Amino acid sequence: MSNHSYYENAPIILSILQFRFAPLENLNVNEVKKLASVIKKNFPDVEEKYSQGILINNNQDQTNISLDEKKFEGVQISSKDKKDVFVITRDKFTFQSKNKYLGWESFTENIKLFWDAFSNTHNIEQLNGISLRYVNKFDLPLGLKDFKKYFTTYMEDKKNDFSITNYQFRFSSIDKENNLIVNIGHSLEKATSENIPYIFDLDILKNDFIINNSKSVWEEFEKIREKKNQVFNQSITEETINLIR
Fold first, then answer.
1. What is the pLDDT of residue 27?
2. Which superkingdom (predicted)?
3. Nearest Cα to 188, choosing from 145, 239, 126?
4. Which residue, 43, 67, 65, 47, is CA-closest to 56?
5. Which of 42, 155, 179, 245 makes the best surface tag, with the fewest CB within 10 Å?
6. CA atoms within 13 A on the CB side of 221
7. Model pTM?
């Protein structure tokens, strides 16, 4: 049975898809920039990313602070509005989007094009893992005290008369059948003048070797997607669904 429910007002504010692989001996920046031409129309901005540490040297007289050498971390490729971003490092290929979620096919269209070009050029035959993460934001009504009206997992205190104004909790579960790790986060944010922001974070990982061909990889992503939808739909109530229909 499919769990692919469609919600007109999907609450997703951040979507992340990631491939992980053995570190590349040489991540060729110019080659990556050239490969990015397959998505250049939608992702025109390409920049190199560097990290730089701080060195602290303590001696009897004084403490000397200096900057370490810059280290090349990877390449970032962004859309014009900077809301869709690819980040490529020696061992990860990540796509994240802050744009309105328009469905799986739309979300993965550019990923498939770029990943195929990148992985074929760099001879990536096997993956160490893949993951999907969706951060959802619900605008709950002001004055709400009973969170089980909207979520099947929640925090409450029945012995005290004070109201809970904010909280965070996170837990994990294992899907043994599909070898998935499911990380679930709940966060009640500070109320605004209009509503109570509630963050529901789903991060699902497969940490296993996967043969890198289109059929195998996207079949595994489909299993993760099915699990994500199952957990999402089982975690909310009919009242929550009414907010996002």
1. 86
2. Bacteria
3. 145
4. 65
5. 245
6. 24
7. 0.88
Q: State in Å, rounded, how far the first CA of the chain is from the last one.
A: 21
- pLDDT value of position 245: 81
Which residues of the chain carry a pLDDT beneath 70? 1-5, 52, 55, 58-64, 66-68, 160-164
Strands 84-89 and 92-97: antiparallel
- C-alpha 167/C-alpha 189 separation (Å) is 7
Give the C-alpha separation, 170 to 100, whole Å: 25
The label of the residue with tokens 């500070």 reads 190
User: What does the block give as tokens for 231?
Assistant: 């957990």
> Which amino acid does the sequence have at 158?
K
∠ CA 19-215-202, nearest 5°, is: 45
Contact predicate 215/125, CB 8 Å:
no
Short-list 217, 235, 240, 173, CA closest to 18: 217
- Six-digit token string for 35: 């490969």
The pair of three-digit structure tokens given for residue 113, joined into one six-digit string: 């094009």
The tokens describing 43, both together, are 């992702």
Which segments of the chain are extended strands (E)? Answer: 12-20, 45-51, 54-58, 63-67, 71-78, 84-89, 92-97, 126-127, 129-140, 167-175, 180-188, 196-206, 210-211
Q: For residue 82, which amino acid is it? A: K
> For residues 196 and 139, is the Cβ–Cβ distance under 8 A?
yes
Q: Which two tokens stand for residue 105?
A: 């096919």
